[in-house]
Amino acid sequence: MAALARSVLVTGSNRGIGLELVRQLAASPRPPQHIFATCRDPEGPRGKWMLCDLLELSSTLLFALADAVNLPSIRGAVRAVGSHLKDQGLNLLINNAGVSSHATLRSLDSREMLSAFATNVVGALVSLLQEFLPLLEKAAKGVGKEGLSCSRAAVINISTKLGSIGLCLKVPEAPMYPYRASKAAQNMVTRCMAAELQDKGILCVAIHPGWVKTDMGTEKAPLMVEHSVQGILTVLANLSQDTSGAFLDWEGNTLPW
Ligand code: NDP
């Protein structure tokens, strides 16, 4: 089986789903030629040693610093990735970094709402895409590339079904206003990006990873991170023109926006 993509960048890859994405990509029988693991604070919780372990295991893995809410940091990562790829573009950008918030209508304050939007929408999505777009466009224009796929050029936004307005009435137990509203906004950005970028050969999809045992998902979550990420990578390998602009879960099921 061919590699998912020649080059992949994952944000928030020092723990949780992002770390497992990097781990499975690096360990796959046909790993991408370049895997860029990014995180905002390599010295932070469990960041440094986990990434160091992976760097030792894989020759295709490179590390870059990228804080999603810090534009100079994102630009630094773009420069580092661009100079490493030389004349090639970046094929696959996985926007995984995100923050949660359990604020209810009563406990909510504007600072918490703005902070969730700053990370989950403005930084992790809009700024990151704006800055990496030239590298994605370069990949999309590569010789012999047709149709839409992760091996050509793609942006995958790790979303959540808690951001689905269509499903909202069915999940009343988790108000989480800042998190859900910011993920709903992220979904709209994904939809707009998909419409705008498909003519440039760039596929955009939102993926719900399931309820996963991570720091964010907590121990109560039913799904192991390894299992979720296996599913996500299988879904990514099968994305095409027909699924660009879709909202899918880790098993490939379509979710309502
Ligand atoms: P974790 O809390 O375990 O990890 C979050 C990651 O995002 C960390 O690497 C964290 O870095 C990073 N991050 C947060 N803010 C920034 C920032 N400003 N810049 C760069 N990186 C940042 O969460 P998960 O792994 O569980 O979640 C990953 C994604 O999956 C999120 O987008 C989340 O919304 C989504 N998701 C998760 C679900 C679950 O059940 N776990 C369910 C549905 C969706 P640091 O260590 O520095 O804080």
Your description of this structure?
It holds the Pfam family adh_short. One of its GO terms (cellular component) is cytoplasm. One of its GO terms (molecular function) is oxidoreductase activity. Residues 6-168 form the Ketoreductase domain. InterPro entries: Fungal_SecMetab_SDRs (IPR051468), KR_dom (IPR057326), NAD(P)-bd_dom_sf (IPR036291), SDR_fam (IPR002347). The protein is α/β, with parallel strands linked by helices and 257 residues long. The protein has a single domain, classed as NAD(P)-binding Rossmann-like Domain (Rossmann fold, 3-Layer(aba) Sandwich), CATH 3.40.50. Helix content is 40%, strand content 13%. The chain has six helices and seven strands. A seven-stranded parallel beta sheet has the order 3-2-1-4-5-6-7, with helices on both faces. Helix 1 (16-27) links the parallel strand 1 (7-10) and strand 2. Helix 4 runs parallel beside helix 5. It is globular, with a radius of gyration of 17 Å. Bound molecules: NADPH dihydro-nicotinamide-adenine-dinucleotide phosphate (NDP).
